[in-house]
Specification:
The complex is a heterodimer of chains A (205) and B (204).
Chain A lengths: L3 E6 L6 H10 L4 E5 L1 H7 L10 E4 L2 E4 L1 H11 L7 H26 L3 H29 L13 H17 L8 H11 L2 H9 L6
Parallel strand pairs in A: 1-2
Antiparallel strand pairs in A: 1-3, 3-4
Chain B lengths: L3 E6 L6 H10 L4 E5 L4 H4 L10 E4 L2 E4 L1 H11 L7 H26 L3 H29 L13 H15 L9 H11 L2 H9 L6
Parallel strand pairs in B: 1-2
Antiparallel strand pairs in B: 1-3, 3-4
Helix pairs in contact in B: 1-3, 1-6, 1-8, 4-5, 4-6, 5-7, 6-7
Classes of the chains: A alpha+beta (205), B alpha+beta (204).
Chain lengths: 205, 204
Amino acid sequence: MPQYKLTYWNGRGLAELTRMTFAVAEVDFEDVRLTQEQWDTMKETTPMGQVPILEVDDTVLHQSKAMARFLAREYGLMGKNNMEATKIEIVMEIINEVDTAGINVYFEKDEAKKAELMKKMTNEVVPRCYKALESMLNQNKTNGWFVGDKLTLADIAGCIHFTGAEEYFKINVSEKYPKLKEFRSKVEADPKIAKWIKSRPNTEW
Amino acid sequence: MPQYKLTYFDGRGLGELTRMTFAAAGVEFEDNRIKREDWPNVKPTTPMGQMPILEVDGKVLHQSKAIAKYVAREYGLMGSNNMEATEIDMVMEILSEIHSAGIKAHFEEDETRKAANATKLKDEVIPKCYKALESMLTANEKNGWFVGDKLSLADIAVCIQNSSLQNFKLDYSDKFPKIKALCGKVESNARIAKWIETRPKTEW
C-alpha cells in the first residue's frame, strides 16, 4: 500500500471528493489541512501554486478530479470497463458545470452581476444539468446508482455536490427531481459514506 | 469495430480533440458537421443541448473530454497504467483551465471585464499552466512525450490547445520551447499530419 498524503485547506471544497473516495475504499491517508501561514511557506513547492495535491509515495499529483479518478481506478470505483468509466466521467463533467456556475456566483463581487449569474444558474444551468443527471439514473436500470450495479466515483461526486448545492445555494432536489432525491437518500445511507460524514472535521465549507 | 459518429459544428473547437484522436489511432469515424442554421433542430435531440456528441453503435456519449478519453482508452492512447492515465488526465485538466479563462476573455460582453479577463488569461493563467506543462515534459525528457514512451492523448490535446491560442495571437512558443518542440513532434506524426492536411479548413 503506498503512503498517501492529501494537502488542502481546512474545508471540504475541492478535496472532499478525494477524501470521501479514500473513505469508501477504506484506505488510510494523511489528511493535511493547511493554515494560511503553512500555505505561504509551501505554495512555491507545489506544481501550480494550488491545492489540493496528493502525494503517492514520492509522486505529487494535482488537479482535484484527476487525483480522485486515480484513486477510483486504483480501488475499483471507476466502473468495470471503458464505457462505465466514461459514463462516470460524464456524470462528473455535468456536476462540474453546476459547480462552476456556483463558484462564479460565489466569488462575484459586483452585486448586479452576481444576481444575474445566480439567475442563470438556477433557471438554466441547474435544470439542464439535473435533467441530464436524472436521465443517467433512469438509463441505469440496476439498483439506483449512476453507473453499473454498485457505488462508484460518480455517486460520491453526486453526494458531495447535492450537499453543497443545498448548503450554499438552497438548491433542494426534493420537489422537482424525484430521482435525484431518491439518489441522495441512497448515497448518504451508504455505511462508509455515512461514517465519513459523521467523523470528518466539521468545517464551514 | 463499432460504428462511430461524432457530431459537432463545422469547426475545430471542442470536437477536434476527438477527431484527431481517431486519426492518430487510425480509426474511421463519421465526421458529422452541423451548420449553424441547422443547430436549432439538432439541439433538442442531444442529451444536454450541447455538442460534441459521440455515438458508439448508436449509444450517445457527450462531454468533450469524456468522449476523447473514451476513444483514447479504447485505442491505447491513455497510457500504460493508472499513473500514466492520471498524468494524461492532469494535462487535460490543466488545459481546461486555459480553455475556461479563454472563454471568459472571448465571450464577456462588458468591455472592462473583458479586458480584465484577457489580462488574466495572458499574464496569469497561460504562464502558470504552461510552466506546469513544461515541467511535465522535463520530467519525461528522455522519452520526449508528455507521458510514457509514446504519443498519448496528452500530446494531442496540448498541440490542439497551443494552435488554438496561436489562432488568437497568443503565442508563447519562445517562452516555452519544450512545448513548441512537442507540438512540432505531434504534427509530424504521419497520421496526424495527414489529418491536418485533409481535414476541412475552418476559421476556428
